[in-house]
Amino acid sequence: MSDGPRVPYLSILGTLIVALMLTMMPLPEAARPFRPDWLALVLVFWVMMLPRGISVGAAWMAGVVLDVAQGTPLGQHALALCVIAAVTARFHLQMRVFPVSQMTAAVLALLSLYQFLLFWINGVAGVTAPAVAYWGPLITGTILWPILSVVLSGIRYRTPAGA
Amino acid sequence: MAGSYKKSRATKTPALGLRVLALVVLSILLMLLDRRNGHLDAVRQTIGAAVYPLQITVDAPSRLWNRMRDGSASRNRLRLENSRLQIESLVSKGQIQELAALRAENDRLRALLDARERVRGEVRVAEIMSVDANPYRHNIVLDIGRRDDVYDGQTIIDANGVVGQVIETGLFTSQAILISDPDHALPVEVNRNGLRTIAFGTGAFDRLDLPFLPNNADIRSGDLLVTSGLGGAFPPGYPVATVGMVNRIPQEPFADVVATPAAALNQVREVMLIWHRPSAAEPEAAETAAAGEEDERR
Fold this sequence. Notes:
- Chain A is built from 7 helices and no strands.
- Chain A has one domain (about 10-155).
- In chain A, helix 3 packs antiparallel against helix 4 (about 75-90), helix 4 (about 75-90) packs antiparallel against helix 6 and helix 6 packs across helix 7.
- The longest helix of chain A is centred in the last third of the chain and has 27 residues, at about 130-160.
- Chain A has helices at about 10-25, 40-50, 55-70, 75-90, 90-95, 100-125, 130-160.
- With about 160 residues, chain A is an all-alpha fold.
- Chain B is α+β, with helices and mostly antiparallel strands.
- The model of chain B is unreliable at about 1-15 and about 280-298 (pLDDT under 50).
C-alpha cells in the first residue's frame, strides 16, 4: 500500500468511537439479536489495512472498553477482539488482495471465530443466551461488510496527511 | 512508524504471537479477577466514566424525542391527562391513608409477636437510559450510579411491581438485571396463603416460570405473588407477578406454573430504587442474604 506508513490515528479513534456508540444504540427488541458486531468489523478493517499502526493491543483495549459498556465479564470481548485482530494481522496481505466476495467470506470466518469465542466464554461463565444472539450478528455483519469497507476506505483516504 | 514499517517481515510473526498470547492470558486473568467480586471495580468505574459521555450521546435522541413530544402535546390532551392524574393521585392518597393505619396496626401486632420490625426503604426515581447493554441478558442501564449511593443488589420496582436488581454500579450509571432474565431467580410467596417458591425468568418479558411447585400445591390462576424477602436481596411484600396458568401433570413431580410479571418490564422508562439493607442488621441474616444472592444471580 502506497501510504502505508501514514496511520490516521484520529480517524481510527473516531470510527472506533462511532462503532461503540452504534453498539450501544437502542434497537427494537426484535432487532437486538441482529445488531452487527460494529467494533469487530471496524477493527478488522483497520488491522487489515494498517497492521503496523493498529493491532492486537489496540483491539484488546477497545474490547475492555466494550466489556465495561456492555457489562460483560471484563476481558470477554477483549480476548475475542484481540484474537481476531491477530488472525487479521497474520493474513492481512492475503485479505487485502481478495476480491470483495472472498474478502466477505474471510470476514464471515473472522466473525464466526469472534462469536465462537464469546459463546465459549459465556459457556464457561454459565451465561445462557438464545442461539440467535450468536448467529444474528454474523448474518448482518457479513451483509454489511462490503458497504462498511467502502465507507471506511473513504474515511481513510480522505484524511489529510499526518492527521 | 515510518521507519518501522519497512522492517523485515520475518521479525513480525513471532512477536505478534507472543503479544496475542500475553493479551489472552491477561484477559483470562481479568475475567477470573472480575468473577471474584469487586477486585476490578476501580478499573470498571474509571473506564465507565469515560464511556459515560458516549452513553449520554446515544441516549440523547430518544430523550430529545420525548421532550419534543411533551412539548408539542396539545393543550386539550394535557388538560385531560392532568385531570386524570389528579383523580389518580386522589385515589392513591386515599389508599395511603388506610395504609398508614394498617402499618401502625401491623407494627403493633409484630411487636406483640416479638418479631423484628420491618425495614422500610427510602425510594428514589431513576430513569432507564436508551442504551443497549449486555446482548446476552435482559439488562437495563439506569441514569444514577454510585454517586447517588446506588449499591449492588439494590431492588428496582415500578408503579406495579418488582422490575429487577442492580448488578453493577458505575459512578454515574448502573446496570440492572430484569426479573425476566433467564438467569434470574427471585424468592416469592403467594400473597393469599404464604406458600413460598422461586420465580425464574424465561427470557420473555411477559412470563415467569415457577418450576418447583408440587402438584398438590395450593396455587391457582389469579394468585398474586409477592417477594418473600427470603435470601435478603429483595425486601418482602412487593408484588412480583400474577399466576397465569397452572397445569398439574399427574405423572410429573412438579406442576407447570407460569406467571405474568406485574411490572411492565419492557415499557417503563422511570423506575424506583429502594434503599433497604436488612443484611447489615444481623449477621445471621447477612449469611442467608449472601447465600440467597448467589442463588439469585447464579
